[in-house]
């Protein structure tokens, strides 16, 4: 009998993700404040007003509630150039290598094999002739120590 999975077993490591995100944002801050060279004041994105109340900070960014329409938004925010720099290929590479890929590898390890075994058990230990190639490829894929998570199975 298999051990029940818990959500934390197959989800991304949010603490590690937060650490990576924080380290990537440091280039845009000086002494804990958003660097003026990297920021721009913006009006409410919904109604255009600039007066805010109930200001609070989250991860170094100032959030405020528009007094006119009660939209909560960030101002100042990163400039478009800084946003492009932040969400570069390096961002996605770092994010995927440190968080997403380990999560998918864990999911494949915990779920992939179990689902394959379930399928075989449901078919009475064998698969129909039409599924045999898929079953053989799946078996090879799941057993391979070289399996790259996130990569599709090779097609014939």
Account of the protein in words:
With about 160 residues, the chain is α+β, with helices and mostly antiparallel strands. Helices cover about 45% and strands about 15% of the residues. It is built from five helices and seven strands; from the N terminus they run ααβββββββααα. It has a three-stranded antiparallel beta sheet with strand order 4-5-6, with no helix packed on it. A hairpin with a 2-residue loop joins strand 1 and strand 2. Helix 2 runs antiparallel to helix 4. The protein is elongated, with a radius of gyration of 24 Å. About 10% of the residues have low confidence.
What are the defining features of this structure?
two-stranded antiparallel ribbon, alpha+beta, 2 domains, 156 residues, 3-stranded antiparallel sheet, 7 strands, 5 helices, elongated
Topology pattern, helix = H, strand = E: HHEEEEEEEHHH
Helix fraction? 40-55%
* Count of β-strands: 7
Oligomer: single chain
- Shape call: elongated
Please list the strands of the largest sheet in the order they lie side by side.
4-5-6
Provide the low-confidence segments as ranges: 127-131, 145-151
Biggest beta sheet attributes? 3 strands, antiparallel
So how many helices?
A: 5
Which class best fits the helix and strand makeup? alpha+beta
Percent strand equals 15-25%
What's the average pLDDT? 75
Terminal Cα separation, in Å? Answer: 34 Å
CA-based gyration radius: 24 Å
Number of domains: 2
